[in-house]
Amino acid sequence: MKLRVIFFLMIMIFFSGCEKNREISIAANEWIGYAPLFYANEQGWLKNKNIRLIRTVSLGESLDLYQNGLVNGLAATNYEYEKIKEKVSPVILLDKSYGGDKIVSNVSIDELKKAKKIDVYLEIDSVNYLLLKSFIKKHFIDKNKLVLHNADQQQIIKNDYDMKKPLLIITYSPYDISLKEKGFKEITSTKTDKDLLVIDALFIDKRYLDKKRFKELKKDIDKAVLEIKIHPRKVYEKIKNYYTNYSYEDFKSDLKNIKWINNPSSELLKLLEENGIETEDLIEN
After folding, report:
1. What band does 35 get if pLDDT is binned at 50, 70 and 90?
2. How far apart are CA 134 and CA 101, in angstroms?
3. Which of 77, 97, 105 has the alpha carbon at shortest distance from 256?
4. What distance in Å separates the CA atoms of residue 223 and residue 63, rounded to the nearest whole number?
5. Mean pLDDT confidence for 60-68
6. Alpha carbon of 64 to those of 57, 68, 113, 126: distances in Å?
7. Band of the pLDDT at 9, cuts 50, 70, 90?
């Protein structure tokens, strides 16, 4: 499937390269905080601005598509931004993780400390790794006993686990629902780990910073966030096909695990700058 996506994107870029109002492609995975983009897409607002949304299975795949020149931007976290910050700018802030990124396990933290070996499943080249580093540091777990298994979230939820072994899985909404159904329990998250900053934004290649277009997109994002707050059922019905085995109750519950930051406070902007995140190209209201 990934090869078909790449082949399609190469054809798309070839034929759109000479257009005056060139199509801009944006990669986004199934994170709950990207719901405003999915809703804007379903409403036809992205198409009206010649913006194409490319769905991916992980943050890592979104990053790969950008680094290989197959998309012009991506919805991602500050972790991915650090890897490409010389080439992209955050243009629209989306959300701050407030429990949406989490670690689940089949055993307790005390049992993890005593274990001789822990199998860890995560997207290694993503914000998942930040959660893992913070967790083992806080709980004094020896990193040498961790056996890391790199997998995207679709692979993680489909895996057949040996529940007799100590397991750690770094995941995020909505994938944690499937893992909890398998018997895993949450042991930490971005809600309980106060020192961990995870924000999501729309990052665009600096060569394609069409401010007029993104000012209009910012209005659409704001409309979408307002619709999510006021009419969550209506939005869910529009975008439910973007998610796998995701009920309305799950959707509504997971909305509590993020905080919308599309209209950031001056305090948040200062915090972003302190954490090395540029704010000069952010679209203001």
Report:
1. very high
2. 12
3. 97
4. 27
5. 96
6. 11, 6, 34, 11
7. low
